[in-house]
Amino acid sequence: MLLSADMGFGKSTIVSNIVCADPMSIWYSIRQQVLVYHICRYDVISSSKPEVFIRNLAGAVVRDIPEIGNAILSDDMALDFLYGKCSIDPVACLEFSVLNKLKYKNDARKYLIIIDAIDECETSGGTDLVDLLYKKIPFFPDNFQFLITSRNIERLLYKFKELEHTDLQLYEQQNLQDIRLYLEKTKQMTNEEIVKFTKISGRNFLHVKLYLQYCKDLITAVCDVIPESLEKIYILNFERVFGKKGDLFEEFICIFEVLCSLQNSINENKLFNVAGLRSKEKEKHHVC
Prior knowledge:
By secondary structure, the protein is α/β, with parallel strands linked by helices. Helix content is 54%, strand content 9%. It contains 15 helices and five strands. A five-stranded parallel beta sheet has the order 2-3-4-1-5, sandwiched between helices. α11 (205-217) packs parallel to α12 (230-242). The N and C termini lie far apart (48 Å). Keywords: Repeat. It holds the Pfam family NPHP3_N.
């Protein structure tokens, strides 16, 4: 199944409910079918690498399906691909290490493979996770099923058109009901305020959550002017932190440039040095 929607409609929340379900949860019956899950993040380069997904999948098979796991562990070619050639040829790696072994598994049990935010695993070159799944999902046995979430990006929807597709944005009324229920349970508001918040939400949970956080940061009980979009909320928060003219942002921009180029964490002193800030500037920014 492919679940699609724009940002803020609860795709990752559904995945979280499944993966984290306890025995009392309504999601637990699905959780019991989960073999492996993979979360794509645009800022985590390794999450887009198909070999990472393949090794996680192979590890889950070894753990949960012993007879197939033993076949993988006793196959020198499979191990050679998994720990040597997988990054070079991920398609062959998946075939030799996992798919070829699953052909001989006669099991009625259902296994669920979850990939959250597949759109964030799409890269510009080579075989990424999107390409791997596009090519190889049809070769999995029928009892191995996929749950993939993505934003509504046409090329991705087309690539996975063979999967059953559910567009969460089609369920407008249910989304509005969920938002209203959330507001009733988490905030003390009048019915008029709840109706107003729900109306401007655009059926988008993230919009509501960020706006309420914006009001909280301003220590404002009631926000009279409600933003029309998520972008407006970001602009208001930007102005709150950096001022309406953005002068403070200009002073910080050299630091942001370094932070945006990083793939790993960096300590404060090194950050200032790489940004080329002098001692007095360091003190000024540190105070800010």
